[in-house]
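S.,

Sequence below, as promised.
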Amino acid sequence: MALRQLGLLDTAPDESFDRIARLAASSLGVPMAVVSLVDESREWFKSSIGVAAAGFPREHSFSARAIDDRRALIVRDATQDTRFAANPLVTGAPHVRACMAVPINTKGGQPIGALCGMDTQPREFTASEFAVWNDFAGLVQDMIHAREMAAESEWLLRSVAASEQKHTQMERRLQRIADSIPAMIGYWNTELHCEFANDAYRAYSGLTPPQMIGRHFRELLGEDLFTRNSPHAYAALAGEPQRFQRRTLDGEGRPRYTEAQYMPDRDEDGVVRGFFVLVTDVTELTVAKGALEVSNAKLLKESTTDFLTGLANRRVFTERIEVLFRRCRETGEGYALILLDLDDFKRINDHLGHEIGDRVLRAVGEVLGSGLRGRDDVAARLGGEEFAILCAGTYSMDALCEVAGRIRARINQTTVDGPQGPVSFTSSFGVACSNSDDAAWTNAFARADSALYEAKETGKDRIVFGHSTAMGSTGRFRSLGIPSGDE
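The prediction came back faster than expected:
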């Protein structure tokens, strides 16, 4: 009865309601916002943003639930909410996932509708977002109250005065809402003149409210920034929402980052009347994102690099040799493997100390890392004093032994400072090439491993080519998680 007495059902669109719905939707960042009126059987939209229908059946209405409960309704994920999971508005178009609806009451406290915002994605609604949405609902309610007062003919004069007062209060309330938001909020018409600006915008411009209203976009931004931002402004006036970032320097020369949104404002006929501007300081977020990227890069490097030598670690080695083995099977392009183990390294650690031992390992790492031909080759520390070089490409036995020989010569010429003078060291090498009949890369590794074992047993500081296809059984071989040939 109260709803029918208002005379609002099935009436023509009203720009005052539409503007509140548009601004509410923009501030909350939802694609759908409606001012709904609910009677016994249906929900009818006095204003709708992003919803093609004129209304919904009452039993499907989110607003009806808020009215029945006489309190705000917040749905974070409708598909997980037993009240709405089977709702046709959730299972079908417009595919509502999140919703916030605040009841709208008559002056007598009778709920007749709601301001309802809907999103197609699940989301959380913060306390500050709810407070802003509640204020927008209050604006709609104030307007309805004003309509009620105007409808009371016996109090016509008082109603007119009260309606004007409500209108003023509504404007002030809208201004307070906008002023409470730290982002810059403004409205610019098709002539690029300012019609509205909040405190943050005025603080940025250094202008008083009377000076701000009516000022041209160019005057506010200055020639340089206007040249960069005006294409976005004209695009917004053409109906295309804009989002972009700017980097500027503050008064102390420190970089500041802002994100701007230019949102077209369309009337009931779809004609763009102007555009809303929302500019947010994202400096802290941008700096945090940069720090996170640096941290992620550091973690990635740490997860793939041996901390002492700077070479690839064992995980990278096994991943890369697996790739080369698959490529060999598919294209016939071979690969080769050089394993080396420092001779008598335990003696260096025991007699000269682990600090000297670490210097030796780093020196070997520098030799191996500087000797790579390109990104397809990998030098890795497998553990302790054991190293490997993975060479992409097909090699003969002589060519591979020549490569290993150059590395051996450089290692033999390398020294590190010790407590009693330069410390020299040697290495033993086991080398092997891939074979077309290898069942896995471990076959080539086994040949190189067996050859390295032979080099150690036959005098050290030498290079042995691996011919045997028998699986190895050394600790180095098992450290990669490969079972020995007799297991």
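The longest helix spans residues 127-151.

Coffee later?
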